[in-house]
Every structure is written in structure tokens, then in C-alpha cells.
Specification:
Layout (H helix, E strand, L loop, with lengths): L6 H11 L6 H12 L6 H4 L3 H7 L1 H15 L1
Helix pairs in contact: 1-2
């Protein structure tokens, strides 16, 4: 995807997608991959969207909003 869209555009679109119930889980995984976030090991424990919503979504969304919006 980075060959088609630049990194900043992809990050912005992914952050927006975190508010869409059909795209949030995928957008979060994509943000982890793009940014090489060090705690991506979370995906070894959280195997699906429902588990992510229950245990991690709020933390991830807060992290992306606080961290990535500052660098754009």
C-alpha cells in the first residue's frame, strides 16, 4: 500500500477508519505495521476484533490519536 499512497496519507486514512466498525480492526493492524510499533506482540494474544474491542481498542485509538496526529 505504501507504493500507492504516501505514508502520511495512509496513516490519516487509517486513523479515520478507526471510527468505522467495518474497518477499525484492519486499520489498527495496518497502523501497527506501518509504524513498526514495538508492542505489536499484542496480536499474538488478541486474535480477533471482539477481543480487541474488549481489551485494547480504547488504548490503541488513544495512542494513535495522541502520537500520530502530532507528527502530521
Amino acid at each position: 500500500m505504501l507504493k500507492v499512497l504516501n505514508k502520511d496519507t495512509l496513516i490519516a486514512k487509517s486513523i479515520s477508519a478507526l471510527n468505522n466498525v467495518n474497518k477499525d480492526w484492519y486499520a489498527n493492524a495496518l497502523l501497527y505495521d506501518i509504524t513498526k510499533r514495538s508492542d505489536a506482540i499484542t496480536f499474538l494474544v488478541i486474535k480477533d476484533r471482539n477481543a480487541w474491542i474488549y481489551s485494547q481498542k480504547d488504548k490503541d485509538v488513544k495512542y494513535w490519536n495522541n502520537t500520530l496526529r502530532k507528527i502530521q
